[in-house]
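User:
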Amino acid sequence: MSHNFEVTQSELLVDAPVIALRRDTLVMPGGGAADREVVEHFGAVAVVALDADNRVALVEQYRPSVRRRLRELPAGILDFHEEDELTAAKRELQEEAGLAASDWGVLIDVVTSPGFAEEAVRIYLARGLNEVEKPEAEDEEADMGFSWLSLEEARAAVMRGEFLNSIAITGILAASEVHSGRAELRDVAEPFEIRPTSMATRRAAAGILPDMKRI
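Assistant: Predicted structure:
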């Protein structure tokens, strides 16, 4: 029988706008206890947007954590109270790529760093694209680049090690499987069961609404 890792104590160590850090004390197999630090997160969405020529819409954004610009998918965190994932994905696609789509499906859900973080991402495939007005960007996004790359070349670039963002790698490879007919999209109504809730629940209870990162 699998062990039940019961949390006997939890302490909030850091509470920042888009992440928090807590320390949980868990019961280990054999009856002992151990502390584990967990980075809390709102969860996120990302979009593989394919045009009629099977080109992928890509953005390039500076990431302070790795001190370099990375090629990525349009993406964003689920920081608005009770906003559903598809609505967030449509918003991010417009804000980061200036695109809207008429055809949506779920590609894959992924936990990005399960060793220490709650972050989970739902990645969509969006088709039937058209250009829409892109709002004015702020901070790093004001320096964001944009480009198109064929799905075939994007997959090859992943395998050459030219993509470092794990969400982009996952989304591109999953989209390639769907495009080849080896996999099928899931319905957008399918629940995002691994969406993190701890930080969102705490911020909502504190009245930090609707934008839960404004603390």
